[in-house]
Amino acid sequence: MSGATRIISSVSAMEDLGSLLGSKLDAGAVLLLNGGLGAGKTALARGIGRALGISEVTSPTFVISKIYPGRIPLVHVDAYRLIGQELAVFDDLDLELRIPQSVTVIEWGAGFVERLSDTFIEIDIEFGANPDERAVTIKGIEL
Ligand SMILES: Nc1ncnc2c1ncn2[C@@H]1O[C@H](COP(=O)(O)OP(=O)(O)OP(=O)(O)O)[C@@H](O)[C@H]1O
Ligand SMILES: [Mg+2]
């Protein structure tokens, strides 16, 4: 499925896009955020969190996943350190147990997300022509 591509020109615009997206999500939503280091995946997740009533989503640096209480709880996963590991390491997180009552956002989750859910929203973030520009493609939901 192809999606609409938006040009996003600042980190605050990325957060606003996340917030718009977050406002459309129900419990059970699973989102895969693709994009290189510093693409803006966490900035987008921060905006999603804002729409769920969560004031500050940070990069889960020392843990693989963080759970934020909100209007709908947000499970924020950074699977970067699981790349190249046995898939069992990911399965051991038992993330699927929380999916029905949460919004689950996974950075660096290509290759993992299918283990959690048959259907998910996929977001690709690419670097643009200048340092603050990103091209964001969203598949699986209409905004
Ligand atoms: N349009 C933009 N959207 C998002 N971030 C931007 C934008 N322009 C500049 N930035 C900067 O890019 C960086 C994005 O960082 P962020 O942690 O969100 O990326 P990330 O994709 O989560 O990286 P990582 O893979 O390391 O987790 C921030 O320093 C932010 O200020
Ligand atoms: Mg990040």
Describe, in plain words, how this protein is organized in 3D.
This protein has about 140 residues and is α/β, with parallel strands linked by helices. The protein has a single domain, classed as P-loop containing nucleotide triphosphate hydrolases (Rossmann fold). Helix content is about 20%, strand content about 25%. It is built from 3 helices and 7 strands; from the N terminus they run βαβαββαβββ. The chain has a 7-stranded mixed beta sheet with strand order 1-7-6-2-5-4-3, with helices on one face. Helix 3 links the parallel strand 4 and strand 5. Helix 1 crosses helix 2. The longest helix has 13 residues. The chain is globular and about 40 Å long. The site of adenosine-5'-triphosphate has 17 residues, from helix 1 and helix 2.
Which features characterize this protein?
alpha/beta; 143 residues; binds magnesium ion; Rossmann fold; 7-stranded mixed sheet; single chain
Explain the layout of strands and helices.
Elements lengths: L3 E5 L2 H13 L6 E5 L6 H11 L13 E4 L5 E5 L8 H5 L11 E5 L13 E7 L6 E6 L4
Parallel strand pairs: 2-5, 2-6, 4-5
Antiparallel strand pairs: 1-7, 3-4, 6-7
Helix pairs in contact: 1-2
CATH-level-4 superfamily name: P-loop containing nucleotide triphosphate hydrolases
- Secondary structure category: alpha/beta
Bound compounds, each kind once, are: adenosine-5'-triphosphate, magnesium ion
Cα end-to-end separation: 15 Å
User: Do you know the CATH topology?
Assistant: Rossmann fold
Summarize model confidence as the mean pLDDT.
Answer: 95
Q: How many distinct beta strands?
A: 7
Largest beta sheet, briefly? 7 strands, mixed
> Which overall shape is indicated by the principal axes computed on the Cα atoms?
globular
Q: Mind telling me which CATH architecture this is?
A: 3-Layer(aba) Sandwich
At the first level of CATH, what is the class? Alpha Beta
